[in-house]
Structures are given as C-alpha cells and as structure tokens.
Design a protein that fits this description.
Elements lengths: L2 H7 L4 E6 L9 H10 L6 E4 L5 E6 L5 E6 L5 H12 L3 E6 L5 H14 L3 E5 L20 H12 L17 E6 L10 H14 L3 E6 L3 H13 L6 E5 L7 H9 L5 H8 L4 H21 L4 E5 L5 H10 L1
Parallel strand pairs: 1-2, 1-10, 2-5, 5-6, 6-7, 7-8, 8-9, 9-10
Antiparallel strand pairs: 3-4
The structure holds flavin-adenine dinucleotide.
The site of flavin-adenine dinucleotide (FAD) has 23 residues, from strand 5, helix 5, helix 6 and strand 8.
Length: 317
C-alpha cells in the first residue's frame, strides 16, 4: 500500500517520524538507534530528509578565501533502502529541487524505482545558507511543482532526454509540504494555498505540515485549504521543544509562532531538563487535541533526538 492508501485505510491516528541521514563520515548506527528507540510505537512510515550542498569558505594564510562545496548529509536514498531492508518499515525519502540538477533527480528516482521505494515527499528544499533568497537554476527544478511535473513525466514513462521506459511506468506516489503559518516567501496565505493546490491538482496525494505549536493555526489552515478545494489528507507535523534557545531559534528558522502560554512556561525553566519536560507536556497536549479531531497521522520531527518523542508517544499511543 502507498502512504496515501495507508492514511485512507487507517481507522485510528497513526505514528510517523522524520530522520536525517548521518553527517558525512558518520556511521548509520545513529539512524538505527533512533528507530530502535521508536519502533515499538509502530511507525506507519519513516521519512528521510534530503540536503543540498553548501559552500564553505576557508580563510587561507595568504589572505584569500578558499571555497569548498560540500554536501554535509549525503545518502538519503541509501539510508531509506537500508531502513526498509533492516526493519521492513515503509520509508519516504525526500526529493528536493535545490542543489540538484534534473538529471541527478532522475538518477535518484531510477535508483528508488530499482529499490522498490515508490513513496516520496516532493519539496523545493531549503536555500543554501549562503543565499538569503532562492536563486533559480537553469538545470534544476525551481519549485516543488516543477519537481512534481518531473515525477509525473517519469510515472508516464518519459525520461528527460526523451527516452521512453519500454517495460513499465514508474509508480511513484507522493506527498508535498504545507505551511499552517504560511511559507516565509509567500506574499499571503491565499497565494501560498494557491500554489499548494497546484501541487495537489498535479497529483500530490497528501500534505505534511511544517511544525506548529498552536493547533488553532493547523485547524484554520485545514479549513482554508478545504475551502480552496484541497481535499487530500493534511498530516500535522509536531516537534517536542527540547532546548531553551529554541524559543527564538524555531521561530527564526521555521517561521512559526510559539504561543505565549507555552513560552511563559518555558521562561520559568531553570535548565534544559525542565524545558524538555515542558516541551513534552505541550506536545502531548497538542497531540491529544489533534487526535480528538481524528487526524490520520501525527508526524514527529525528531531531529535525531528520541527521548522527548518517546515520552510523547508513550503518553498518546
Ligand atoms: P514550494 O511548494 O515550491 O513553495 C515555495 C514558495 O514558493 C512558497 O512560498 C510558495 O507559495 C511559492 N511558490 C510555489 N510554487 C510557485 C511558483 N510556481 N511560482 C511562484 N511561487 C511559487 N528542506 C530540505 O532542504 N530538505 C528536506 O528534506 C525538507 N523536508 C521538509 C519536510 C516538510 C514536511 C516540510 C514542511 C519542509 C521541509 N523542508 C525540507 C523545507 C522546505 O523545502 C522549505 O520550506 C522550502 O523553502 C519550501 O519547500 P516547498 O516544497 O514547500 O516549496
């Protein structure tokens, strides 16, 4: 069954979570350890993020800077395959536009097809840390909708160079991202929903949201999406807060609000152990309310820390 079919056939709220491929040079054991800590909660699928390359500038002794291009977290496809092979759990690798040419994307899709991995999350990807604004690429896809179109073409047997798949069409099934608090670059929510609808109309079978800490924003988003004609499931993304500095870091990076009621509790904490406790309690409160509204899945951003996600899962599943 595809993720979309699993979502539709599930009669109670299921658990899923997101993992990052290891930093270059590190072993895959940390990925396995994370799964070992969470597998008892019966994840319906596991997402594996994808990361673009980055420029690094090194100060050299002659006063000049040396520029290096590095991909800090390569290996999304291989990590997905090894999880599927080791645990038999459905995997959803992320496929992104930024940092990849269309050809590289096609090769990744061919590899995934050979591996029997046909569920993917299609995204534009983060900007390079060097670019404040998105730069367009001649050889790559610029928006998620362009990548959706590339996947759709492959699903009907067409490669980029015009070669045709003679034996079969690829059966990729995919979800896309949505933003209950609006994507940072969108001029307004209606415009952001307009582009979300383009992705859904083109074939996305479900939407996974950016993390949010105020359920009212998710409920409002779902309603506005429905009003626009977006009828596919919208999976809420949750993150248990674990560090005091996330009070400012999460709004800065992910463009999300932290409700004052929650922020006030965090400010009372004397150390990060207390923050973790408050973060878990808030996340349980969010999860219970979402479950009461029959959301199909609760998707957790683990950021490779399992302790808090475990505590939330223990309390709700
Ligand atoms: P898009 O749908 O392309 O939208 C980007 C912006 O452009 C929006 O403001 C939209 O309104 C607008 N827009 C869309 N299409 C058009 C168009 N044709 N013309 C003009 N404007 C347009 N990042 C990573 O690098 N790796 C990951 O693994 C990753 N995983 C993620 C998982 C989830 C669930 C989420 C929510 C985000 C994830 N991200 C990841 C971050 C994401 O890639 C960034 O937020 C990115 O800036 C936007 O991605 P998108 O797919 O929503 O882009």
């Amino acid at each position: 069954m595809t993720v979309a079919e699993l979502i539709k056939s599930s009669d109670k709220t299921a658990f899923s979570f997101e993992l990052l491929p290891p930093l270059k040079g590190n072993s895959i054991d940390k990925v396995f350890h994370t799964i070992d800590q969470l597998k008892e909660f019966d994840p319906i699928y596991i997402n594996i993020t994808s990361h673009r390359d980055e420029m690094q500038y090194k100060d050299t002794s002659n006063g000049l800077y040396e520029r290096k291009v590095i991909r800090k977290r390569p290996g999304t496809v291989a990590v997905a395959a090894s999880i599927q092979h080791r645990y038999g759990i459905k995997v959803v690798p992320h496929i992104i536009c930024s940092g990849f040419t269309k050809s590289e994307t096609e090769y990744a899709l061919i590899d995934l097809n050979f591996l029997g991995i046909h569920d993917i999350l299609v995204l534009r990807g983060d900007n390079s840390s060097r670019d404040r604004f998105t730069t367009t690429s001649e050889t790559g896809n610029n928006y998620a909708i362009d990548l959706v179109n590339q996947v759709n073409a492959l699903n009907t047997g067409q490669f980029l160079d015009g070669t045709l798949l003679d034996a079969f069409d690829t059966p990729f099934s995919y979800g896309v991202a949505g933003y209950p608090e609006k994507h940072e670059e969108a001029p307004n929510m209606d415009s952001d929903l307009y582009w979300l609808k383009q992705k859904v109309d083109a074939g996305a079978e479900y939407v996974v949201t950016q993390m949010f800490f105020d359920n009212a924003k998710y409920f409002d988003f779902v309603k506005r999406a429905k009003d626009m004609g977006i009828t596919v499931p919208i999976v809420p993304g949750l993150k248990p807060v674990t560090l005091m500095n996330q009070l400012s870091v999460l709004p800065k990076i992910f463009h999300v609000d932290i409700p004052e009621e929650f922020a006030k509790e965090m400010r009372k904490c004397r150390n990060n152990d207390e923050v973790k406790q408050v973060g878990v309690e808030w996340c349980i409160h969010q999860a219970k309310e979402l479950m009461a509204h029959n959301v199909p899945i609760l998707h957790f951003y683990t950021m490779m820390g399992t302790q808090s996600t475990r505590k939330v899962a223990e309390a709700i599943f």
